[in-house]
């Protein structure tokens, strides 16, 4: 019985490490989404006499939105394959894999915290 508890505990490390590894390339779409939410959306360029309009940011908006869609779809595909398809294919519990998916934004949040501290 002790060996089964050890195996179950060790089995939780696999999904946690896999989802942390998925979080590293997910930094790109998460940072693009962060830029769109914090820099692009608050601008009021549609209003006459707008004082909060940065035209360089406005010019970059379309390109970065396309990059967000492309990299976001790639990251979402990776998450579906790693957290849904592979556990099902290998007969493992999907609950542990899907539950540890909350670790995916951890590398981005760490980078964001380090950037704000500097």
Strand and helix order: HHHHH
Helix content: over 70%
**Terminal Cα span:** 49 Å
Low-pLDDT regions: none
Task: Explain how this protein is built.
Helix 1 packs antiparallel against helix 3 and helix 2 runs antiparallel to helix 3 (55-90). 76% of the residues lie in helices and 0% in strands. It has helices at residues 2-23, 27-40, 55-90, 94-99, 106-117. The protein is elongated, with a radius of gyration of 20 Å.
Summarize this entry quickly:
The chain has 118 residues and is an all-alpha fold. It is built from 5 helices and no strands.
Q: Would you spell out the secondary-structure blueprint of this structure?
A:
Blueprint: H1 2-23, H2 27-40, H3 55-90, H4 94-99, H5 106-117
Helix pairs in contact: 1-3, 2-3
Salient structural properties:
elongated, 0% strand, 118 residues, mainly alpha
């Amino acid at each position: 019985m002790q060996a089964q508890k050890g195996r179950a505990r060790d089995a939780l490390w696999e999904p946690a490490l896999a989802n942390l590894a998925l979080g590293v390339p997910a930094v790109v779409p998460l940072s693009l989404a962060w830029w769109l939410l914090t820099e692009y959306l608050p601008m009021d360029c549609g209003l006459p006499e707008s004082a909060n309009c940065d035209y360089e940011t406005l010019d970059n908006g379309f390109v970065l939105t396309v990059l967000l869609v492309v990299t976001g779809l790639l990251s979402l595909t990776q998450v579906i394959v790693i957290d849904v398809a592979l556990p099902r294919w290998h007969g493992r519990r999907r609950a542990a894999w899907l539950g540890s998916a909350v670790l995916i934004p951890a590398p981005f949040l760490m980078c964001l915290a380090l950037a704000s501290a500097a």
